[in-house]
Write a structure and sequence with these properties.
The protein is built from four helices and no strands. The chain is mainly α. It has one domain. α1 runs parallel beside α3. The radius of gyration is 17 Å and the shape is elongated. Keywords: Membrane, Transmembrane, Transmembrane helix.
């Protein structure tokens, strides 16, 4: 059963990386940036990247149109 365990571990790893990517989809790097950083490093480090990232600037529709 060691092959089964390896498959389960890889599935959990990829699911955690995808969760981090979903959490970071509205951040600076977007979904794909956080997904690849989580896969390349670890999902824990990817989560720290999400926490450290600045959210994108908020767009103010009324003030931009008035100028």
């Amino acid at each position: 059963m060691p092959i089964f365990h390896a498959v389960v571990i890889v599935a959990i790893y990829l699911a955690a990386a995808m969760l981090v990517a979903v959490l970071g989809r509205r951040r600076k790097w977007g979904y794909w940036g956080y997904l690849w950083s989580s896969i390349l490093f670890t999902p824990l480090l990817g989560f720290l990247f999400v926490l450290a990232a600045d959210p994108p600037p908020k767009q103010q529709r009324g003030k931009e149109q008035a100028r």
